[in-house]
Each structure stands twice: as structure tokens, then as C-alpha cells.
User: Fold this.
Amino acid sequence: MALEILRDKNSPNHEKRPVAIELSNHFKEIMVDEYQDSNELQEQILTAITSGNNYFTVGDVKQSIYAFRQASPKLFIDKFNSYPLDDSADSKRIDLDNNFRSRGEVLNFCNKVFAPLMQPDMGGVEYDEKAALKVGDDKFKGDPKDYESEIIIATQDSEAMDELNIEDGDSLEALVVAKRIKELRADNFQVSYKDGDDRFLRPMKYSDVVILMSAVSGHGEKFVNILKEQGIPAYLAEETGFFDREEVQTVLSMLTVIDNPFNDIPLAAVLHSPMFGFSSNRLAQIRATDGDSLLYNCLLNYQKKDLLRI
Assistant:
């Protein structure tokens, strides 16, 4: 409906309607971020309100992930391939290929991973020299001998996980990460730091380590708990409300259980929390003692049968 207001769909070239012309004269600039995720409808609406030379788009087709929402990366690719780099042209392509967020060691590793994977037949883009990540701040240099990139494969073996008293892949990954952090500390691993314009080396601190995760919600707390159990100080950089934090939710569940122990979900949450440390398997065994009863009754039956020792 927005497009019909702006363009006459019955005209040969979908000519602009008067309101579109008015808006074209009103806006000084039209700027679009994440352009690789635009679709044809959005493109028609936006071009209807441009004056012809005030349309600025920025994006990276390698980051296009919304095809299932009808995003059309071809819009980006067509302009990328057709726009010249000539300053005198009406439409110009500017390659923003300098990365100011990461060191060259990180960028070079990423380039080596992506170059063989990203090809025109997979994603519609070739990861060539123009697409590769480049160091934006050449003052932030390091000796390739001072870093290493490694891939650690942690196999989820049920028997081994039982011996370690862990239940899921997140906990296993966290143990592997904790082990590697301890090894780096024991080996006196050197990291660089900046003092004025000069850079120096010093032994690694815990605060030098950051763990990046594809999804933090539901996973990060497990990592933090395991790291703390291993003697490694850790915190979760996640924007959540006070009452959404796991420890607060646990206390609220405990208060609910004190008020009424027949609430199954809060009781299970408290038993599974670090307060009592019941594993999922143990809770399942308790619940199986009486499939038709509440969890609190099952807990009492389990204790009476001398299967639970407190």
C-alpha cells in the first residue's frame, strides 16, 4: 500500500505519484544500513523518494542472512558490480574494506578460512583481494610468532561426561576452555599492551580473555558457572533486567517453594540450581518414583525409600 501511494503501478515505468515527488524534494539524503538484506519492495519505495543522486547504501553481501524474509542480496551484488570507482561518476562505489576492530593476526586467520568457502556459487560473492579483511590501524601490529590460532574438537562422550559430572555440550565446552586458559597462564603466555605510542609484552591476565559465543542467552550462564568452579573469575556481558538474571530467578523460585512446595517448576529450578546441584538424571529418577504425583511428593517418596541420602 505504501508503494501504491508513491508509484502508479498502471503506468509503463511505475511513474512517481505527486506525493513521491514532494518527498523527493523534501529529503536531503536517503541512507540505508544493512542494504544486503533489502528486498525488492523496499527498494522500490526508497527509490521513489530519492532525487536521483542522494541515495546512499552500505552493507556487506557476505553478511546477508535474511533470504527467508525475501531479502534480495542480488540488489547489492548488481550495484556492487555496476557502480564504478571513478569519482566523476554520478553513482560511485566505495569499498569499506579496512577493519579497525581486530588485529592483523585475527583478520588474516579469518581470510584464510573464508577465502576457500565463499565463492560465487555459494553466496554469490567471490572472496578475493577486494573482499578480504584488511588491517585499518597499521600501528596495531604484532609478530606472527606471538600468536596462534587453533581448533579444538570436544567430543561429547556420554561415559566421559558422566565421569566429569556434566550433562550437556555447553558445560563440556566450558571445561575445555577453562583447561586452555589455565594452560596459557601456566605457560606464561605473553600479550601485548599499549602505553602511549609504544607497545610492550606482559604475562596474560584473566581479564585479557574474552569468549565469543554465537548465542549467549541460555548458554552463557553455564560457561560462567563452570569457569568459576575452575577458579577462573568470569562475568557475562549480557544486557538483561535485574529480575531476569539466573541468580535472582533462583532466589525467587526458592521463595515460591517456601511459600508452596507443590509448585513443580520452581521446585525443580531450585533443586537443579547450584544451591542443591541435582542433575537432570537425578531429578528424572525422583520424578519417576510416582508418575502421577507432584514433584514434592515424589521427593518425599524417594527419601522414604532410602534412595536419597541427605
The chain has a mean pLDDT of 84. The chain has four domains: 2-95, 99-137, 158-229, 242-304. The first helix runs from residue 2 to 6. The first strand starts at residue 30 and ends at 32.
